[in-house]
Known about the structure:
The protein is α/β, with parallel strands linked by helices. It contains 10 helices and 10 strands. The protein has helices at residues 26-38, 52-64, 86-100, 119-131, 145-153, 173-181, 201-210, 214-224, 236-243, 252-259, and strands at residues 3-5, 11-13, 17-18, 42-44, 74-79, 105-110, 135-141, 161-165, 185-189, 227-229. It comes from Kurthia zopfii. GO terms for molecular function: oxidoreductase activity, acting on the CH-OH group of donors, NAD or NADP as acceptor.
Amino acid sequence: xxxxxxxxxLEMPVLGYGTFRSDQSDLLAENVKKAIxxxxxxxxxxxxxxxxESVGKGIQAAIDAGIVTRxxxxxxxxxxxxxxxxxxxxxxxxxxxxxxxLDYVDLYLIHxxxxxxxxxxxWKALEHLYNAKxxxxxxxxxxxxxHLDHLLKNSMITPAINQIELSPKLTQNEVREFCAKHxxxxxxxxxxxxxxxxxxxxICTIAKKYNKTAAQIILRWDIQSNIVTIPKSMTPSxxxxxxxxxxxxxxxxxxxTINQLNxxxxxxxxxxxxxxxx
Length: 278
């Protein structure tokens, strides 16, 4: 498994198993274990997914089976920061640990910036957790340039990760350039646009050239673009397929062809108007 080195020296796998829109269930626990068996070492969840218990069961099953040790895994969860203050954020972290049945997570993220600047107070709580060595790295999700700029001016620690919606239809160039300048890695959620991109003519043509699937081409484009990526699947064969991207490399010409597919299209919510459902 290839890794990227975060700005605090922590190694993060470039490919992870995402669990967004995966309901709490024995099936999810089995698929988490399956992903670890296949070779994934990074597992991504969040409080708002309401599946941390199942993710934790899958992790423990893999550990009990001798597939991995806890130290070999990279576990991410996120705080749903709607109205949380400093103390509320600390409690939210401890509650996530209980649901996951873990002593720590490797990466803890603010899930959304929201429509005001209250994320600064939440970030201070994440800084406290990091300084107390209760989490190995901290970061944010869905932050645009103005969110990141304001956070950096009002914080002591630079986020290690900014997890954003990113796909060939939404390349997020402005955010990526800002993050690169400030040594923040970008992580892509919904990299396959919920499967909508798997029939794209351009991507399918490139896939035939490499004898790979459209999904594999997109995920390979991610990591060759220095983007961490976390595809989600509840189908065991596709969990395996999504992992099989380390035996080929896209040409620079094909990378650029995929870059040209950008339409600045948000398949999911836009952080500029996302208000936690209010």
